[in-house]
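This section describes the prediction task in plain terms. A model, or a person checking by hand, is given the sequence of a single protein chain and must write out its three-dimensional structure as a string of tokens. No templates, partner chains or ligands are provided. The sample shown here is typical of the held-out split.
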Amino acid sequence: MDDTAATPDRPAQPLHPHAPLPHLVPLLKATVLEAAVLAGHLLLYPSGLLPERRSGTHPTDAAHPGAAHPGAAHPGDVRPGGLLPGAAQVEAARSGGPGAAPPVAPALPRLPAPSTPPLPPVVLLHGFVDNRSAFVLLRRALARGGHRRIESLNHSPLTCDIRVAAELLGRHVEDLLARTGQDRVDVVGHSLGGLIARYYVQRLGGDLRVRTLVTLGTPHSGTRVAPLADAHPIVRQMRPHSALLEELRGPAPGCRTRFVSFWSDLDRVMVPVETARIDHPDLTAENVRVTGIGHLALPVHPAVATRVRQVLDAGPTESGESPTLPGARTPEHPMRGHTKQGRTKQGHTNEGGLTVA
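The expected answer:
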């Protein structure tokens, strides 16, 4: 006899009493979205296999004296025959009179320097067995307005150590700063990419170069998903209590970088889902809970992209602390930090939420 069948004295019971239907609807929507994102990403994947072209100049570089366009004329520039000609010399040239000089267009006035410094460049770092094509939509959202330079870095699929990938990131950051004339960058990392960037910041001195690190679905405490994948060394490094994660749990006094981690309550790659949160007494961090999407949709969903852009636009406060975004809650008792170079840094963690579906 069917145990779920209705009888006169017993109403019909749901097939899965521990999984109510109202909770299955968001999961079903997220699963469908994950499948659509995966299909679209497979089409774009070949376009991200080759490294990104990198140019030496960008519109935002013009704010730096060392990045000025070569040959640009400025008032007071000296040329053969004296200063740039004035109205009298130009008129004499037109009339062919004595002392006429070749006609030269008057110098254009120099544009005033911007009142606010340009936003730091942004480095996008993809996840495991992925490439820069994962950030097509996020990159477009961050580039809106043309106020920041954005570059994507492909870490090699043959890399077997997160530490090696973090060193590669460090070299890329130094090259980017040399080309732009700036002194700090922002980094956005998806999944493994966020862990690589965090290792660079905490263990390789990258906090001197990285202003804000945003992580999307990154296993900060390790994930237990797909046990059979342990054959790959990097997967083993992303397991709970791995030697690498124990390094990241160690002290990080005076860390200058601001951390913002986005974690999803329907992320099936992060097991448990809370592993994508940052919880470290020495780090200034904000954890943003995303409701309604899965792992692959985090770097794709427009609501997440909008919040990431808000994070990067806001930047840290003068004290180095993370400004609280809309919907964030500050704990009553922030965790105490450490002192470095005579300056006390108060490590703390803010909690926020973002509903996208």
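For orientation: The first helix runs from residue 21 to 44.
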